What does this fold into?
Amino acid sequence: MQNAASPAAYLGGLKGRTKTVVSSLRRAVRAAAQLDEQMKWGHLVYSANGPVCLIRAEPGRVLFGFWRGQRLRHLEPRLKTGGKYEMATLELRGADALAPGMARQLVAEAVALNAQLGDPTDIAPPRARRKSKAPRK
It folds into this structure.
């Protein structure tokens, strides 16, 4: 569904269990907070003071990721860390599920973290490494 022009088109192109899971997550995300919803990088991205979460349907799995997900692992230990920023992603395969209440709680906390800490993508660029100089004699 990387070519979907809108979130509704993205959802409309899904089938079966994948569509059910994505629909459930999307409803939970939209119920949790006032977020901007858009298609970005071929999947659903939700923002409030910077990116908050994403929903990505892939063959055989659905990913539910958070830009500040490493700070949410106390709520959902299945979040796997990785990537830039403080990313962590929940991978839902087969009969895996996430209760809508937990999805809403994760989103609400991620939004609160963005409100408190700012846009997670606004990290200072890395400092240039100083070249070591040989001591002068």
